[in-house]
Amino acid sequence: MTARGRASVDRNHGDGAGLDQRMSTGGSSLPSLLEATSRGDRDQFRALYEETAPKLFGVVLRITRNRAIAEEVLQDTYIKVWQNAERFTPEAGQPMAWLVAIARNRAIDRLRSERFDRFKDMGDDNLLDQLPAPPGADSVSRESLRTCLAGLDEEARSCVVLAYCTGYSREELAERFSRPVGTIKTLLHRSIKLLRACLEKE
After folding, report:
1. Residue 199: its pLDDT value, please?
2. Which pLDDT score is estimated for 64?
């Protein structure tokens, strides 16, 4: 969005009552705005933005908890809307619910990306320091863990560290590595089994 658009978001953020009043008819104008947007009507797209941006900004801000990131996510959201407006059909549900789903998904994707970027920026030593050690583990045990992790291939090691250091779910790992969820489950299971066997030898 333009600076003017962002200013509009800032002015209206938190003005839930005004938005509710404008949409008191059940959002009947939104399907027509989306339909016009799908035809490349920039004026109607601007009207759609002004009508819905305050609510969507609130959605992404609650997820990201960072105003600057929320503003960027909001811009990404409307780029996605502009590109995919033709996919909306009234039979699929309420237009605002469709828009909120896009905003929520963009915000969650941004958080995942931020978390993975932090993972990439950290050295192996820092990451391994975050791995939970067994109760009573000493420095020798942790060094053994480092040695055994080094024995895994890069993808397996990354999956283990992301799962146990940063809390990635199997579904998130599957998306990140472009693998089926079942493959990720098998990879983690096999990697943990190899780690345990390795640690027993150390």
Report:
1. 79
2. 85
